[in-house]
Amino acid sequence: MAYWDHKRCHDNRLPGRWSSSTALAVGLLLMVSSAWGHAFPDHSEPRVGWMVKQSPAQVRIWFDGAIEPIFSTITVMNGNKERVDKADGRVNPSDTTILEVSLPPLPPGRYRVFWSVIARDGHHTEGDFPFTIGSGP
Questions:
Q1: What whole-number distance in Å separates Cα of residue 132 and Cα of residue 63?
Q2: Residue 41: CB partners within 8 Å, gap ≥ 6?
Q3: Which of 50, 67, 80, 90 is the most exposed place for a label (fewest CB within 10 A)?
Q4: Which are the contacts of 99, defined by CB distance < 8 A and separation ≥ 6?
Q5: Under-50 pLDDT residues of the chain
């Protein structure tokens, strides 16, 4: 409740506002710092939703932070939900922000990449994306 304290001649609402502002700022910082803990995909090859003319030799996903090799997985499935990669999914040993898997020569068709990673601080993220091999419409 706001009122003027005539003896000191100041607005006693300021400490309350400052506290609310401080609480809001601290809350935002906590949200940002917890978001920093997750590893999110930055880009991939093949790119999300793209059509490529030839079967790629591998699928690679670049993340915005380091990921744990032992808890990170990647698989590629065809349109019949059959696994088509070489089952050698791994975090690149020279760059721990890259998750990759090798592919055999694949026929034209639609494929989906499924990934799951644990960031270095223990936060889990997962997702999937499609790509197509073909000559296009």
A1: 22
A2: 61, 62, 63, 64, 115, 127
A3: 80
A4: 60, 61, 63, 67, 72, 74, 89, 90, 91, 92, 115, 117
A5: 1-16, 18, 22-35
- Give the three-class secondary structure for 71: helix
Over the range 59-82, which residues count as b (16 or more CB within 10 Å of their CB) and which as e? bbbebebebbeeebebbbbeeeee
State residue 1's pLDDT score. 40
pLDDT at residue number 31: 45
Closest CA to 60 of 22, 99, 23: 99
Q: Is 104 exposed, middle or buried (0-12, 13-18, 19+ CB in 10 A)?
A: exposed
Angstrom distance (rounded) from CA 6 to CA 68: 62
**d(C-alpha 86, C-alpha 99), whole Å:** 14
Sheet architecture: strand order including 124-133: 51-52, 124-133, 109-118, 73-78
Q: What pLDDT does residue 98 have?
A: 98
